[in-house]
Amino acid sequence: MSRGIFITFEGPEGCGKSTQSSRIFQDLLSEGHDVLHTQEPGGTELGGKIRDLLLLRDDIRLDRTAELLLFEADRAQHVEEMIKPAIEEGKIVLCDRFNTATFAYQGYGLGMDMGLIRNVDETACAGLVPDLTVLLDIDVETGLMRAGKTSSADRMEKRSKEFHSKVRAGYLSLAEESGGRIKVIKVVDGVDKTYEQVKKVVYNFITANN
What we know:
With about 210 residues, this protein is α/β, with parallel strands linked by helices. About 40% of the residues are buried. The mean pLDDT is about 95. It has a 5-stranded parallel sheet, with helices on both faces. It starts with a strand and ends with a helix. It is built from 8 helices and 5 strands, in the order βαβααβααβααβα.
């Protein structure tokens, strides 16, 4: 392919997006595809330091505007250092979270001005838009319970149930407004059953755009 494909994985806490994207990565790799698997925040060396500040440092109080700008700083570095070069090389790029997360978490969750967020995000993305976004949808209580079982809670997971309900509603609204670019997949019991749906969506898209 002359240009690569950029696919992002999104969803509320505990939806299993990292598990699903890792399986897609392994399957594509085993089939000989040139593929990059990365994440936000933290996909670059700078991003790793920003991730620590955003998610793990409870001793640092972040104003919501500072939080937004840190996420976008991570994205700007990520896009220029890793994502754009990989796409230009014809790779399939899989990314755990991208700007849809910012619209859902900072926009809907924290109630920040969406126009401001989009303006800052456009600069950080430098014109890059995901070709496909896989949105794994799960109810808030189940998701938070699952997230708590797999890791110690980070700054986002510790926020209120009301916050996470707004985030989920935001994700679903963004999907409705996306013109089909954001595909919603309901998380079902059993990782394998969910993966069957994810793989079908991703592989169909790659086949149609290869």
